[in-house]
Task: inverse folding
């Protein structure tokens, strides 16, 4: 799934206030408003980012066996495991598959280069896109958790603070990797291909096909070394009332730092 924003940012945005703080904030806020309007005009992006993870959870929840307690899972149900999986799927849809083609398209069409000659710096557009897709991921996460709770009786996280921490770190990791994909892609066609491959890999390590907790030991240890695999385990531990493991959180932070550093070094405005 890839989406491309073809309209581009609204032209002519600039400071309109007189105060020093307002001058600095107004251009970014104007870009954010413009990008939000453009994002809301993309029904495909809205479906895949906001709706699809909840739809997938609903389909899986309709399977009778997934709603029965399983002794192999410690008395838990399969649908209980798929709530964190759907949460991570929402993040990957937003950060890995929706955001990179948009940013690459802006650079390919010279929008970032032209913005460098205006009061609105190109970094404002990048920041707005990251904030927008991060917010979309959070919105999808809330929808997934609401569907799980209301439709299938999945308990809310028993360790809410640990769950929130793991959730925010996972979103940061996905957005950093998405920025890296944008830095590696020179055209929107290449970005679409790379994002699709990265998205499929993210789905597997997040546990879409096989929950990480149900994987064979060797495969699970390998997957836990990936950002979404580690995040899946951290979210699952927090959901059951335990604090996320420091190793799991450390893996997510390490991937975030590495991806952000590489994206900063490799990204080109034009």
Result:
């Amino acid at each position: 799934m890839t989406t491309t924003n073809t309209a581009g940012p609204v032209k002519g945005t600039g400071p309109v206030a007189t105060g020093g703080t307002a001058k600095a904030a107004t251009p970014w806020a104007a870009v954010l408003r413009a990008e939000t309007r453009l994002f809301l005009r993309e029904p495909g992006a809205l479906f895949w980012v906001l709706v699809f993870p909840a739809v997938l959870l609903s389909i899986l929840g309709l399977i009778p066996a997934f709603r029965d307690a399983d002794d192999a899972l410690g008395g838990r149900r399969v649908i209980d495991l798929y709530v964190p999986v759907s949460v991570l799927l929402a993040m990957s849809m937003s950060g890995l598959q929706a955001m990179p083609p948009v940013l690459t398209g802006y650079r390919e069409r010279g929008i970032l280069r032209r913005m460098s000659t205006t009061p609105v710096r190109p970094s404002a557009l990048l920041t707005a896109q990251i904030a927008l897709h991060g917010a979309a991921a959070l919105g999808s996460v809330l929808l997934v958790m609401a569907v799980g709770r209301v439709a299938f009786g999945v308990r809310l996280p028993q360790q809410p603070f640990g769950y929130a921490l793991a959730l925010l770190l996972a979103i940061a990791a996905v957005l950093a990797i998405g920025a890296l994909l944008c830095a590696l892609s020179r055209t929107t066609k290449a970005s679409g291909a790379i994002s699709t491959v990265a998205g499929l890999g993210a789905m597997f390590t997040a546990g879409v096909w096989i929950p990480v907790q149900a994987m064979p030991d060797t495969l699970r240890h390998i997957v836990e070394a990936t950002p979404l695999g580690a995040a899946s385990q951290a979210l699952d531990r927090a959901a059951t009332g335990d604090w996320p493991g420091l190793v799991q959180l450390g893996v997510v932070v390490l991937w975030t730092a590495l991806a952000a550093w590489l994206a900063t070094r490799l990204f080109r405005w034009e």
User: Anything to note?
Assistant: The chain has one domain: 20-266. Residues 77 and 240 are 12 Å apart (CA to CA).
